Amino acid sequence: MMGAMIRRAVRPDAEAVRGVYADAYRENRELGFPGSAETATTAEVAEWIERDSVWVAEVDHAVVGAVRVRVTDGAPVLGRLGVLSAMKGCGIGSALMNAAEDETRCGGYAGMLLTVAGEHPFLPRIYRARGYVVIGPRSPQHPIYDEIVMRKEL
Description:
Helix content is about 30%, strand content about 30%. The protein has about 150 residues and is an alpha+beta fold.
């Protein structure tokens, strides 16, 4: 990894995180898997930072990636993982996931959930390689594609 520092996000990071999501999620839209993270506003991101657990990756004091964990119905759900296009393949996404999983484990949770487009060309494979297994389909959220729910024992 390129010397990225991983830390908890703070409210002043919201604009930089919004920029990361706009850039990172553009690729998914181009692949046919649009997501709301691409069009999130700075105010929405600030709300996530205040309400949920959000981590950022910094390189040379610039935010280059982010991930969120939101506890829903008593279960932690990893989402909103994004890395600037220019920084993909440098281990930043893995470092962000490690931080999220470690803190979730230390918080007393035995597992982590995530949802992903089942037909995405590479994301399900990446998550399987990290120990996530498919536990079922997600209720239809997108009219364009189906999602699956994956879980990793922590």
